[in-house]
Amino acid sequence: MQLNSASKQSNGFLLTTEPSREDADVEISLTSSPLPSSHGEGKNRKYLGQRGNALAFQKSEELQKTLLAHRNERHLVILQDFPDPDALSCAWAYQLIVEQYDIKCEIIYAGTLSHQENIALVKLTGLPAQRWTSQILKSKDLSSYQGCILIDNQGTTSQLLTAVQQAGIPLIAVIDHHSLQGEYKSEFIDVRPHVRATSTIVTQYLQSGLLTLDSGIAQHVKCATALMHGLRSDTNRLMQAQEEDFMAAAYLSRFYDAQLLNAILQANRSKRVMDVIERSLKNRIVQNNFSIAGVGYLRYEDRDAIPQAADFLVTEENVHTAVVYGIVHDEEELEVVIGSLRTAKLTLDPDEFIKEAFGQDSTGRFFGGGRTGAGGFEIPMGFLSGSNENSAYAKMKWEVYDSQIKQKLLKLVNPKDNPIQSE
Ligand SMILES: [Mn+2]
């Protein structure tokens, strides 16, 4: 129980609640605060005493209040179906934070850990995330949970949220850095699209006292390492990191295990992932600095090959944006078109681009979205799923989707094909 360390800081919070996001550029020197600082909190303040801190403090205080109101409960942290290091590490840190409030939370995802680095991250750190397939979901008594939390996603990329909401489990918190995807009835919302990684947001919670990291505790060291990995992976190895992200990384550098991080990063790609990258290279078309590649069918567990192929295609000279997509199928003949966008063009907003290219489904839900530098989309194939025993049929089906997606993308890529911009 370390509640007091957080509550002692409430004076510090109050000092900084007036400036809002617009004042993020104003430097606030928290270190000159005359308030008493015990337990080395003064040091923590120094790290946060830069731009963006006011909002971070305010949100940490709000989160603390929310957690106090939910003591002794059981919660579910829902991650995207294919969780990335940013999501996994933040969920873990969140779990450690709420433990202090006697809240038990389980970290769940519906899909699979696809990227070799994610598998290594979970194995090497013992990260407590659980895969809930539809069968497992059915076997669970959801009435034993009093709340759910979305971290590094807003439910649009998770199959689990619908079931959880149907069970009447209220949304307690949304913590994310993707653009706001809709209106949420959540007690606590911290969605900051200008921050490059959710790991930065969660590290700021740690810095403001919601959990005092201790390098003597192995779990803390592993969690800090996971957060460092999450932060690096969402900022293209810090190359797209901004001051706030660097400040968070600087703080984590006091606790993380560099050797462990290195071991996670050493994980090799599988042959099948290499094959998808090869297909993306062969199939790509380059127009107006966009590289577009359909890679055909791939297995569910190799899904992460798509963003990895996009990461690779965007490195070609004269290419600023890459889009790679394919039809991903699971064991049960369920098929979905999945695509990834990577861009180095600062003026291209992946969220806007994907929403404009693919639009919405019949319920008004967009097929995808994005964050700085990256985006993704998922188009369910519904009635057309499966029945690929006949290879001519499978080929035809792929060609239809391939042409349709290309047309939609090329409308935006070639201004001459864009009726809005012609003449
Ligand atoms: Mn993220």
From TrEMBL:
Location of the DDH domain: 77-230
UniProt xrefs under InterPro entries: DDH_dom, DHH_sf, Oligoribo/pAp-PDE_c-di-AMP_PDE
Gene3D superfamilies reported in the protein's UniProt record: inorganic pyrophosphatase (n-terminal core)
Signal peptide: none
Span list, region Disordered: 21-44
Entry's transmembrane regions: none
PANTHER family: BIFUNCTIONAL OLIGORIBONUCLEASE AND PAP PHOSPHATASE NRNA
Name the record gives this protein: Bifunctional oligoribonuclease/PAP phosphatase NrnA
Originating organism: Chrysosporum bergii ANA360D
Lineage per the UniProt record: Bacteria, Bacillati, Cyanobacteriota, Cyanophyceae, Nostocales
